[in-house]
Amino acid sequence: MLVNVSPAAKVACVKSRDMHWALVAHRDQRDVNLASLRMLVVADGSNPWSISSCDAFLNVFQTKGLRPEVICPCASSPEALTVALRRPLEEGATPPSRGVLSMQGLSHGVIRVDSEEKLSVLTLQDVGSVMPGALMCVVKVEGVPQLCKTDEIGEMCVCTVATGSSYYGLAGMTKNTFEVFPVSNNGTPISEFPFTRTGLLGFIGPGGLIFVAGKMDGLMVVGGRRHNADDIVATALAVEPMKFVYRGRIAVFSITVLHDERIVVVAEQRPDSTEEDSFQWMSRVLQ
Questions:
Q1: Which positions ≥6 away from 250 have C-beta within 8 Å?
Q2: Burial of 153 by CB count in 10 Å (0-12 exposed, 13-18 middle, 19+ buried)?
Q3: Rounded CA gap, 4 and 27, in Å?
Q4: What digits encode the pLDDT tens for the residues 136-185?
Q5: Hey, which bits of 126-283 come out as E strands?
Q6: 31-43, pLDDT tens digit by residue?
């Protein structure tokens, strides 16, 4: 866990759950000093819910010497390896970007900026820029790998030598994943070199910053609209996460009912929560 790093450590690699446990245990670690950290790499920073962990961790440990500019979320996938990484900011530089997106818009595959006051929004933090020497594009989720518009969510693809090249013994899956040739609106390939599908859903924001909203394997189609399990987990956890959900334990999946998918949200409630608390929390999440 992060609270056990050496006082002289320059770089630490954590997951959102590590940060959560550090918050739980920080009262027993009164002599922690994180002033030496230059990079706090959040390995699962592409998960939409990681932003709340980063904010809560910074809020508690800023008094222990942690500087906001050292938090560096990153995005990765088994096929494309490390896709993007936020570099440490210079002191006094522009703070990291975050986007507040309408869940309604996301369900239709488009980006619509909303206000943070609502529950039906998804707040994302950037995961930095694409890795040096790599090209990134965003293609439509279904059909021909056509480039998305700037206000559309799609699957991120990268062109670089630093990715995987094949699945052992799976020629068809290999070709579909590692030999993608994105095309423009008129159907012409944008590059002579193949791109690799990352399996990450998101978009490229201002300044080339990468925003990841979920994963392809968590995509659900309900009532003709697309939802991502990671989006829904992040939105549910935004409703009093520390007060009701026990240790952030929540799962989202879909089941088929009468030829249509239905979303199921399973959350473990805290031992001291009452049924009334449970009902009120559930009612707010459903909004």
A1: 233, 236, 237, 265, 266, 267, 268
A2: buried
A3: 13
A4: 999 999 889 999 999 999 999 999 999 988 999 999 999 999 999 999 98
A5: 129-130, 135-139, 154-159, 196-204, 210-215, 219-222, 225-228, 245-257, 260-269
A6: 788 889 999 999 9
Q: What angle do CA 49, 46, 153 make, to 5 degrees?
A: 95
* CA pair distance 262, 256, nearest whole angstrom: 6
Annotate 229-264 with b (16+ C-beta within 10 A) or e (fewer): bbbbbbbbbbbebeebbeebebebebeeeeeeeeee
Looking at this protein, which amino acid is placed at residue 199? G
**Per-residue exposure over 202-217, b if at least 16 CB sit within 10 Å of its own CB, e if not:** bbbbeeebbbbbbbee
- Tokens linked to 44: 């699962």
Q: What is the CA radius of gyration of the chain?
A: 20
Tokens of 141: 């989720």
Spatial separation of the C-alpha atoms in residues 122 and 2, rounded to whole Å: 27
CA distance 261 to 275: 28
Q: Is 213 in contact with 231 (CB distance < 8 Å)?
A: yes
Residue with tokens 């998960």: 47
